[in-house]
Amino acid sequence: MDWNFETLSLLLIPLISAVIGWVTNYLAVKMMFYPIEFIGIPPIFGWQGLIPKKRREMAEIEVDLVLGKLLSVKDIVARIDAKTLTETIERRLKQVLRKVVNDVMQESAPTLWASLPVQAKNLVYMRVERDMPRVVRNMVNDFQHNVVEIIDIKELVIKQLVAEPELINEIFLRSGAKEFPFIERSGLYFGFLFGIPTMLLWYFYQMWWLLPLGGLIVGYATNWIAIKIIFEPKRPVRFLGLKFQGMFLKRQKEVSRIYADIVAAKLLNPQNITKIMLHGSGSEQLLELIELHVNDAIERYVAIAQPYFALGVGSDNYFRMKEMAIQRIFNDSEKYLAYGFAYAEQALNIGEDLRVKMEALEPEEFEGVLRPAYQADEWKLIVCGALLGMGAGFLQLCLML
Question: What is the pTM of this model?
Answer without folding.
Answer: 0.79
